[in-house]
Amino acid sequence: MKSSTLFAVLALLSVPGMAAAGDMAAAEYNFAINELSQASFNQAAIIGQQGNLNNARIRQDGQKMQAMISQNGNGNRANVDQSGYYNLAYIAQDGQSNSASITQAAWGNTAMILQKGAGNRASITQYGTQKTAVVVQKQSQMAIRVVQR
What is the C-alpha separation between 114 and 13, in angstroms, rounded? Predict the structure, then answer.
């Protein structure tokens, strides 16, 4: 099950790179994946970037974590900080100068931030157990902070 989920995510993240393949002057699609397959950890961290001056960071301290960041555009920043067990985080940014952050502790949390536009700011913090939060920003200059305890 984990392998099929990981394969599906990899397939989805590779699509923007194929769209820009015809333009040799376009920015490259950077892709990084780290999976700790040891049974006691089972963590996956996936980062896909296309554009310039994008910054992405994933920190995982716990077990059975999944974190994915996809950035398309320029000057975007994304951060995922996970601790505990069975947490899932996803950040997708399409545009310019967007900033997103997800912090998860405890267990069973799901957080998703989708940003399209320029200058958006979003933050999700989850300290409780089995919390779910989704933020969708489709305009520019929007800001939101979600805290769940």
Answer: 14
| Integer Rg of the chain from CA | 15
- For 48-64, the pLDDT digits (tens) are 999 999 999 999 998 89
Half-sphere exposure of 84 (CA within 13 A, CB side): 19
To which residue do tokens 């089995």 refer? 130
Q: Give alpha helix (H) positions in the chain.
A: 2-19
How far apart CA 85 and CA 102 sit, in angstroms, is 15
Question: Residue 105 is encoded by which pair of tokens?
Answer: 């502790």
Residue 129, phi-psi category: left (phi > 0), alpha (psi -120 to 50), beta (remainder) = beta
Residue 13 contacts residue 31 (beta carbons within 8 Å): yes
Q: How far is CA 15 from CA 11, 18, 34, 128, 133, in A?
A: 7, 5, 19, 34, 26
Contact 82, 65 (CB under 8 A): yes
Residue-wise pLDDT tens digits, 86-126: 999 999 999 999 999 999 999 999 999 999 999 999 999 99
Query: Residue 28 corresponds to which tokens in the numbers above?
Result: 């490259």
Q: How many CA atoms lie within 13 A of 127 on its CB side?
A: 4
